[in-house]
Fold:
Amino acid sequence: MNDKRNQPSPVPGTSAAGGSRFDVLRERVSNGLPMPLWLQGAFELLQAAFFSAFLVVIPVVAVWFAGGILERPIEDMFKLSGQIWLLIHGVPLTLHLNGAESDPEPLAGVLSLIPLGLTLVPFFLAWRAGRRIARASYTDQLWQGIVGALGVYVLFGLFTGFAVQTEEASVSLGAAATIPLIAAGTGVIVGCHREAGSWGRLIGFDTAAWIARASQHSRWAGSYVWAVVRSGTLAYVMAFGLAAAVLAVNLGVHWLDISNVYQQLRPGLVGSAVLTIGQLGMMPNLALWTLSWITGGGIVLGNGSTLSTLETTVGPLPAVPFLGALPTGELTYAWCFMLLPVLAGIMAGWFFLRVGENHFDDWLSLKVRYRWLSLGVSTLALGLIVGSIAAAISLVGSWLSAGSLGIGRFTEVGPELWLTAAFLGAEVAVGTAIGYLLGPLLEHDPVLDG
Structure:
């Protein structure tokens, strides 16, 4: 790992390449200021925290100046910005609202629906900070910068949670201090890995040497497991990509309906910009919801509203523009979309064939006399394992994209967690078996000239 602080110093008045003092200063700033690693890590991630908070404050205060939020002091806008900053980091907010005139009982609920697109902002800022931390340290020193970075993020989240408490919304200080570490910590570690070039250099552990000491049978088993894990991941990623493509086409088809909702709301220039930013932040959620829809598992949009390729029941929905693109009406052939995860499984099975690590089939062919039986059993096992891996990843994605709006009918919003995983796992399993068996028909050996 590069340690810029321990490189030979340039001649006074020039840089290492013969430049001016300004070039030297610029190079030092770009490579990180000389300071203890824990302090540099804290400084880098503190910048990310402040910048992400600044990006939240700007649109909220702009809406206030435009008159979109009436009869509230500017201090409340900063508290609202802090609450939004915590929410995009995954921290749930407890809402306390007054009831209607007919029912004066106060309403309480938990707002936990995370706009994943906005969560990418602190993630990438932390990723950049992680790269800069790794650039300034050796492998065995890297933990110091990471500990300093995460420590200051804990303090920033704790202070934010303490400062944004209001009568309408409150937050657990423990959650405010720890949950933001998920997005920021993941970003820092991924950034450090990107700069280090390998996980071995990042953690100081030589994986290749450890594998070399293992027995041949262990290496074969490990190669098989790793190939299966990659195939399952590929199946899920491709299914997600196909779902995102379906979402994009559907938004284009229903663009007129979305525009009509905008016109009915009349949010103004600033309000339209903020509303659009919020909807863009929800795009990853919508893509994951679309994946649940095409699998047949379905999504829930509050009590009484369930949408899937097999059944659609839609109740009253809020006036949010992107909801104008919901598939409604007679959907006779909607079940055909369930073939898309099967296609993802076919590609996963073909990929596994090309990797050439089916050591379970090799072992089974030695134990079972009939080739048709050994091939059938190994292919069935491959499909089940790959489908299970895709289903497990689906559980994580569906859980992240789901949540609650806290009040009223919308206490449950998002994919049907277990149904989506079950349907996706079964569809990917079938596709993987088909792709592995048909893969040889798509492979051609090069013709060698005599």
User: Anything to note?
Assistant: The chain has a mean pLDDT of 81. The longest strand covers residues 93-97. The first helix runs from residue 21 to 31. Residues 214-442 form one domain.
